[in-house]
């Protein structure tokens, strides 16, 4: 495992409140690390990044991801949270990265959010 893969595991997956997650380099939309079986394609990543361009519109329209329409419960220049029935989607961007995480009904959304935001803060402190 590479360093980012280890960090992803230690910071997110090990909480048992993150179903799937990935760290993506914004510049070229490349997946730097991801949980097992979590596949994101460049067009999906671009749509997720585009949702940060107009947070009010994202709040109004929601986010389409993984064949689901997520209702947006938070959208600002750095974080977007979506909810679809018993599932959730967390997007947090830093200077160079996008962190994507999902959770399911058996998980605590607040723990997922806190873990993702904490990881993003770590990258922001490093200037990434």
TrEMBL record:
A cellular-component GO term for this protein: cell cortex
This protein's record includes keyword Cytoplasm: yes
Keywords (A to Z) from UniProt: Actin-binding, Cytoplasm, Developmental protein, Differentiation, Lipid-binding, Spermatogenesis
GO biological-process terms attached to the record: cell differentiation; spermatogenesis
Main location: cytoplasm
One function term, GO molecular function aspect: lipid binding
Superkingdom of origin: Eukaryota
Record localization: Cytoplasm
InterPro entries associated with the record: PFN, PFN_euk, PFN_sf
Function: Involved in male fertility. Required for manchette development and acrosome biogenesis during spermiogenesis. Binds in vitro to phospholipids, including phosphatidylinositol 3-phosphate (PtdIns(3)P), phosphatidylinositol 4,5-bisphosphate (PtdIns(4,5)P2), phosphatidylinositol 4-phosphate (PtdIns(4)P) and phosphatidic acid (PA). Contrary to other profilin family members, does not bind to actin in vitro.
Protein family according to the UniProt entry: Belongs to the profilin family.
Protein name: Profilin
Organism: Lottia gigantea
Upper classification of the organism: Eukaryota, Metazoa, Spiralia, Lophotrochozoa, Mollusca
């Amino acid at each position: 495992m590479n360093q980012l893969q280890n960090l992803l595991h230690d910071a997110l997956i090990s909480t048992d409140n993150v179903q799937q997650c990935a760290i993506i380099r914004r510049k070229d939309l490349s997946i730097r690390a991801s949980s097992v079986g979590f596949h994101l394609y460049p067009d999906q990543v671009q749509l997720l990044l585009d949702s940060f361009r107009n947070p009010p519109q994202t709040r109004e329209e929601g986010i389409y991801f993984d064949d689901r329409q997520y209702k947006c419960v938070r959208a600002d220049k750095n974080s977007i949270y979506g909810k679809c029935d018993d599932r959730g989607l967390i997007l947090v961007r830093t200077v160079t990265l996008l962190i994507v995480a999902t959770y399911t009904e058996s998980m605590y959304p607040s723990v997922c959010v806190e873990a993702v935001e904490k990881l993003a803060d770590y990258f922001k402190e490093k200037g990434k």
